[in-house]
Structure formats: structure tokens, C-alpha cells
Amino acid sequence: MQYFPLFVDTNTLQVLVVGAGEVAARKVELLMRTHAQVEVVAPEACQAIQALAARGKLSLQQRPYLESDLDKAQLVFVATNDTELNAQISHQAKARKLLVNVVDAPKLCGFITPSIIDRSPLLIAMSSGGSAPVLLRYLRQKLEAFLPRRISSLAEFADSFREQVKQHFANVTQRRYFWEEVFDGEVAEQVLKGNSPLAREMMVAKLQQDAPKTEGEVYLVGAGPGDPELLTFRALRLMQKADVVVYDRLVSQDILDMVRRDAEKVYVGKAASNHTLPQEDINQLLVREAKAGKRVVRLKGGDPFIFGRGGEEIEELIAHDIGFEVVPGITAASGASSYAGIPLTHRDHAQSVVFATGHLKDDSINLDWPALVQKRQTLVFYMGLTGLPVICRELIAHGMPSDMPIALVEQATTNQQQVVAGTLADIEHKAAHIKPPALIIVGTVVTLRDKLNWFNP
Ligand code: SAH
Fold first, then answer.
1. What's 259's domain CATH number?
2. Which of 1, 59, 324, 438 has the most CB atoms around it within 10 Å of its CB?
3. What is the model's pLDDT at position 275?
4. Pocket of ligand 1 (CB under 6 A)
5. What pTM was estimated for this model as a whole?
6. Domain of residue 181, residue span
7. CATH number of the structural domain spanning residue 424
8. Is residue 146 a part of any domain in this protein?
9. Is Thylakoid a UniProt keyword of this protein (predicted)?
10. Are 247 and 355 a contacting pair, CB within 8 Å?
11. Is residue 324 domain-shared with residue 367, that is, in the same domain?
């Protein structure tokens, strides 16, 4: 972040504007919306600035700029048509540690001004740091369209109840829940429709009814296989409401970035053999946070109920009488299959698909091998990378042809996705460079990839 965003209180702010042409006038007009004291210095001033000066809105000095003009200023805008003078003022201002902006000359600027959407008291400021003005305009249009027309009334309405709500709910989290309900519900709807008196009545009634909630809830949320675009709407909404997010290794940084910024994020690890936090401790953590009244999101890779130990976590919550909800996610098998161009049940190849764990225990995998070695069946192994040699050996030993196609998909659906295809006989050798997380797909459907592959990160 090269530019740090901030909002400056203009109540006691002294601003110097050097230049009084059309460009300067645009800045001055914006400044006129604030409480800042504005002094404009320029030998000649355009109509708009003269008019403002005549109405006593600003002080206009019709003369050339002097360095002493900087004495009183806290913030300086430079917009003359003399580039040398602009540079000189910028250097002088910077030497005095003043914040200076030279219009259309980013190199001379100590600060830049954002593009704004002004629905005071609500103010949205955005910047692309000069990198993509058109993108910024595009985004701005989208946001403008998305913002209700009376959003500023809603902000004022909320402000008028702030103290009362604070009195009613001592706890910050409870206050937040209350306000979220207000903004999501009928009260806000009425304000946005322009019916503030009714909204007021409803708000007063709501404050009388709502007893502060003391117990939180846990949401077991599937985060999908990696690509954030594959999150469900519900997952995203809950992530943005969470007080605490408990996540493990499979949840990508891109997805974590979408969690509410103020939420506490707790990493509980879990690599195949290196459990950062034992399951029992994770269960207890969820219970503890929920009992403290927090909205807990337990974020898991893929789907919580597919090799995700989601069931165990819920049992613990039930034992403690804590409310919960499960949000399904796209499991790795679905993600890998789609993004590797391997339809798991193409009707020319397979009538069934089995999801199995390839997790090694004492160097062996305890699976019903004869049931797995069936014709017209696709096998998907989760957690099978370390056990790959055992899987291939057992499948062959139980009658699967050694030239049966097999594919490994590493970090499916992400930009780091890698796919290696081969046969049971040669995959171990071919896939030596593949690292976890990786999924194993066995069956003739793997050959379809040659034709159907579409994702090349
Ligand atoms: N609940 C998860 C699975 C957890 S078990 C789900 O539904 O997807 C962990 C295993 O999932 C890993 O060992 C790996 O085999 C698989 N896996 C998870 N994400 C993956 C990804 N993006 N690419 C490949 N395999 C993945």
C-alpha cells in the first residue's frame, strides 16, 4: 500500500490553494463542502472562485505566490499552469513537512485525493494509486448503482440512536448484532423508503423487546477447494459476519482475505501427520468461543462432511447445547475433477464413484480393496499422496490392470494447480514432484482429460 487512506477533520484545517483557474476551482468547490478555511492565491481568478470570494466563503489573494503563504497552511493544493512554479511550491512545502498535492503531477505530491462517493455522513473514498483510472470509474459506477438513494438518511438515523443502543447493550458484540439486524431488516427498509417516523417507532419497540443475547453460535463452513470464486454465497456472508474464524491448513490465503477484517483468526493447522492442535482441543475451542457469546465460523477446506471431521465437532457442540449450522462446500473431488477435465462418472466409463481415504496407518491402508476394484467405477483418494505406492500396489494385487489410468491433482482449482496422469505402474515415478494437498483419481475417465482439459493456470 503506497498510499495510506485517511479522513481529515476539517473543523480547524487551514488549506492553501495556489492557482485559481478551472482546475483549482474544482478542488476549491470540493473543499467548500467541508469546514476547512481556504485561502486561494493567484494573480487572476476564474469566475467561480471570484464568486465564492465575494460571498465570503474563502479568502482570495490576487497576487503572485510567496513562500510565506505556506506559513499558516496545513494542507496545500497547487494548480497553476506554470509547471516550474508548481514544482517549486511542492519542494518548499515538502521542506516544511507540509502535505502537498500538485494536480496531475503525482511525483510532486505528498498526498493524492481519492475518487469519492459522497453520501455524507457516509463517505466512500477509492483510489487506484493512479494505476487504473478507468477501472476506478467502472468500480465507482457499480458502487453508485448498488447504494440505495437514501443511504445517508440511514446513516443519520443510526447516529440518532447510537447512544441509546450503547446504553441498552453493554457488550460490543451484542451491539454489532443488533445493528446488523437493523440494517438487514424492516427498520432500515422503512428509512430507505423515506418513512423515518415509522422506522423510529419500530426501533424503539425493537430496543424494548430485544434482550441481549448471551450465547453465540458455530457455523461449520465449507470453504471449497481453493479458488475463492467457488465459495457459496452463504459461506461468504457468514465469513463477513464472524467474530472468530477457526481455520486449517487447506483454507487458502485468498479465502481468508475475504473474512471480516476485525474477526479474530485462529489457525489450527492439520498437516497429515502433524496436527497443530489436537481435534479434542479444536472442539473445546469452538465451545469456549461460542459460550463467550461469539459468532464462530469453523472454516474447513472443501466440504465439512467429507473427510472433514465436521461430525465430531458438531457432536461436541450438541453436548454443550450450542446452536450450530453446517454450510456445504465444493469438495476437492468435485473441484479437481472439473478443473482437471476428468468427469468422474462419464457414462461411457463409470457408473459409480467412490471417495476413499488413502491415509496411511502403520504403513498400510485398511480399505475394502475387492470392493474398490470393480469395473466401471471411478476411485477418488483423499489424503493419499504418501500412500500412493501402497494404493497402486493393492489395486493391482486385487486385480486392477496395471495400465489403469490414474491422475494426481495438486492444489486443484488454484493457480498452482498441477496435474500428472499415468498408469498404476508408472505414476509413482512420474509424480515424484507432486506435493500435498493432492487428490488421486483412478479409472478410465482419466483418459478424457486429453480432450476435456480446459483449465491451464
Ligand atoms: N473436507 C475436504 C477434504 C479434507 S481431507 C474436502 O471436502 O475437500 C484433505 C485432503 O483433501 C487432502 O489430503 C487432499 O487429498 C484433498 N484436497 C483438499 N483440497 C485439495 C485441493 N485443492 N487439491 C487437491 N486435493 C485437495
1. 3.40.1010.10
2. 438
3. 54
4. 225-226, 250, 300-303, 306-308, 331-332, 335-336, 382-383, 409, 411-413, 436-439
5. 0.73
6. 151-209
7. 3.30.950.10
8. no
9. no
10. no
11. no
Highest mean pLDDT among 149-153, 191-195, 332-336: 332-336
CA of 224 to the centre of ligand 1 (A): 9
Pair (243, 291) in one structural domain: yes
Q: What are the tens digits of pLDDT across the range 283-313?
A: 999 999 999 889 999 999 999 999 998 888 9
Nearest partner of 227 among 306, 302, 299, judged by Cα: 302
Q: How many CA atoms lie within 13 A of 277 on its CB side?
A: 15
What's the 409 CA to ligand 1 centre distance in angstroms? 10
Residue 351 has pLDDT above 60, yes or no: yes
List active site positions.
Answer: 248, 270
Measuring from atom 11 of ligand 1, which residue has the nearest CA?
Answer: 382
Closest CA to 282 of 294, 298, 265, 293: 298
**Tens of pLDDT, residues 9-60:** 999 999 999 999 999 999 999 999 999 999 999 999 999 999 999 999 999 9
- Of the candidates 300, 330, 360, which is a domain's last residue? 330
Please identify, by atom number, the ligand 1 atom nearest to the C-alpha of residue 305.
1
What span, in angstroms and rounded, lies between the C-alpha atoms of 293 and 397?
54
